[in-house]
């Protein structure tokens, strides 16, 4: 089955969660379906969902018999113990004849290529495909289709398709996430349940209150976005070059999925038959009356602002057939001596490939010139200038960079890039880096597109945590792309950390102190304080009142707005791995990073000195927390 609008082939792609649902949906007017197998996918939270191996093989036979395609999601991050099982699973999928894999982890891409498997690859939305250079890099790696970032507008999609011819898949209906793809580690930090490994506990759906400037605002569920709805925008989707219209809903029942497939199929077919006389709103009322959440076109036509936030049924569990809510507000776990001892035991005997390569270095990420000058004066080994500068500080200018280079002495200095880079960002940084070579020691790169664009400019590159490296195969992949070192995913549990250190040959870095971003959003929470009337007065407990705070009865999480208007939700507590520094160094961590952006200069100086002392194998001084306390984040969990 295929649909054509002129020379453009259009695919309606339907979700199926179980084989029973598949048997109904495959008979409906969709062109392809996607589902997950028994492991290695992003829907592992619900028992009874996903396909057995036998069901996958039968589903492929049935779909191909109807002239339709089957895509299998192998789209979560692998830990080291899963690699061998993944190889066996990939061989099976090739034999079963699936039409493509939807993948996130570059370990999976590497395995497919190393094993010589005939398995077409589609880049998952969790790869966060965000710019032209990233699409070019994926094309060179053999990827045939990209599921675009949820934040990509249709104008950008059209530009990328026109420049590359890459097949683009776009979400047209269903449950969306408030954070950028693979840019939320909150569930890992609080529950040990990784959102990048198919186990998200959805803290974005909690009932928060917002505080700022001493005022409390009535912004219930401020992170809970509406469902995507593009039913009335079929013409714009086709015109943009999108070839696959993707419905979200692998956790939905058959009747709901069938309603969506039938409605969208009818709309697409009506538009193909009569584009001039196409009635956009025909049967739209039926979809609206049977919606789960309210509807939004999200970022398809630009930033939606607060209109993207849902209140319908939030907190009731009515979205799900089980009727339950995934989780309720939960405090971040406190650092404890017992847990420290347990991790020390787990790390005992772990000897990574780089554990004997010399002393580990100390790196600090800073947000402004005062922090940078102090860090240089303290003699830190490496200094990262943030690419996502938190307001009210301003971006580092060329003059700033040059003045720091003149005084940096033995400190290596790296220019960080924004985590999410649009075409404008790529152009700006290309001009900064190529017009006149900077005297920096390298770049802290955040996405594959930046690696592809800047690797020939002569700057050494270090990979940031946003590259989501969870295993040695992914580390090796980025090493082959030219990275000299890479920061491990902050979602690694203690057990998985030990495994990754054991097998990786590329030098590895870890964030060991500070409050890193655990939810990175295009959505601007600060808008709430600009349009809503306050309902009370209350000061922030740990950060300045100028910083917006998300508050529950379990704690307060600061949210910083960066110079691009993006929001960074941080832990309420600080990571503190000071008691584990020696064991981590012996296990193979090459570089320890302090996330210093939010600290006052004096507080950051105290933290730097404590870590320097510990790295000299001296007893580290006692550190009082600056914020709500200390936590081990994902290392709290096995």
TrEMBL record:
It comes from Paenibacillus azoreducens. Pfam families: Peptidase_U32. InterPro entries: Peptidase_U32, RNA/ubiquinone_mod_enzymes. It comes from the Bacteria. This is U32 family peptidase.
């Amino acid at each position: 089955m295929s649909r054509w609008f002129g020379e453009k082939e259009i695919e309606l792609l339907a979700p199926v969660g179980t084989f029973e649902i598949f048997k109904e949906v495959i008979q409906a007017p969709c062109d392809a379906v996607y589902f997950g197998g028994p492991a290695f996918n992003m829907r592992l939270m619900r028992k009874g969902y996903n396909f057995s191996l036998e069901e996958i093989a039968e589903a492929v036979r049935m779909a191909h018999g109807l002239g339709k395609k089957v895509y299998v999601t192998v789209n979560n991050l692998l830990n080291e113990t899963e690699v061998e099982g993944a190889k066996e699973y990939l061989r099976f999928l090739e034999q079963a004849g699936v039409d493509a894999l939807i993948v996130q982890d570059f370990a999976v891409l590497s395995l497919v290529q190393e094993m010589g498997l005939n398995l077409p690859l589609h880049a998952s939305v969790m790869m966060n495909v965000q710019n032209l250079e990233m699409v070019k890099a994926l094309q060179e790696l053999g990827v045939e289709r990209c599921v675009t970032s949820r934040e990509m507008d249709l104008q950008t999609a059209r530009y990328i398709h026109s420049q590359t011819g890459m097949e683009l898949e776009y979400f047209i209906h269903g449950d969306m996430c408030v954070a950028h793809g693979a840019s939320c580690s909150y569930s890992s930090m609080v529950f040990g349940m990784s959102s990048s490994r198919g186990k998200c506990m959805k803290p974005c759906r909690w009932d928060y209150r917002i505080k700022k400037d001493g005022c409390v605002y009535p912004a219930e569920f401020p992170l809970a976005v509406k469902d995507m709805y593009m039913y009335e925008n079929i013409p714009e989707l086709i015109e943009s070059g999108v070839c696959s219209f993707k419905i979200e809903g692998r956790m939905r029942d058959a009747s709901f999925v069938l309603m969506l497939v039938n409605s969208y199929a009818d709309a697409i077919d009506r538009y193909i038959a009569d584009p001039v006389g196409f009635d956009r709103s025909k049967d739209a009322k039926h979809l609206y009356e049977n919606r789960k959440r309210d509807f939004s076109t999200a970022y398809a036509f630009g930033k939606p602002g607060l209109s993207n936030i849902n209140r319908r049924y939030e907190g009731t569990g009515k979205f799900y057939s089980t009727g339950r809510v995934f989780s309720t507000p939960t405090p971040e776990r406190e650092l404890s001596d017992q847990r420290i001892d347990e991790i020390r035991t787990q790390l005992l005997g772990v000897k990574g490939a780089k554990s004997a390569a010399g002393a580990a270095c100390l790196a600090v990420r800073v947000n402004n010139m005062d922090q940078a000058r102090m860090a240089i004066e303290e003699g830190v080994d490496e200094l990262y200038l943030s690419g996502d500068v938190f307001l009210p500080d301003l971006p580092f200018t060329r003059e700033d960079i040059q003045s720091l280079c003149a005084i940096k002495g033995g400190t290596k200095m790296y220019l960080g890039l924004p985590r999410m880079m649009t075409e404008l960002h790529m152009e700006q940084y290309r001009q900064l880096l190529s017009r006149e070579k900077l005297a920096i020691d390298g770049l802290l790169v955040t996405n594959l597109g930046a690696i592809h664009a800047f690797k020939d400019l002569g700057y050494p590159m270090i990979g940031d945590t946003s590259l989501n490296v969870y295993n040695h195969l992914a580390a090796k992949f980025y090493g082959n792309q030219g990275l000299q070192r890479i920061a491990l995913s902050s979602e690694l549990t203690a057990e998985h950390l030990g495994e990754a250190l054991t097998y990786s040959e590329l030098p590895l870095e870890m964030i060991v102190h500070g409050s890193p971003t655990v939810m990175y959003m295009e959505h601007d929470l600060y808008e709430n304080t600009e349009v809503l009337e306050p309902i009370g007065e209350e000061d922030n407990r740990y950060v300045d009142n100028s910083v917006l705070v998300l508050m529950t009865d379990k704690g307060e999480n600061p949210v910083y707005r960066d110079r691009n208007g993006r929001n960074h939700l941080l832990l309420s507590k600080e990571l503190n791995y000071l008691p584990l520094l020696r064991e981590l160094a012996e296990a193979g961590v090459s570089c320890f990073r302090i996330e210093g952006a939010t600290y006052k200069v004096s507080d950051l100086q105290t933290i730097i000195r404590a870590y320097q002392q510990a790295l000299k194998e001296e007893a580290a001084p006692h550190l009082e927390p600056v914020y709500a306390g200390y936590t081990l984040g994902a290392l709290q969990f096995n």
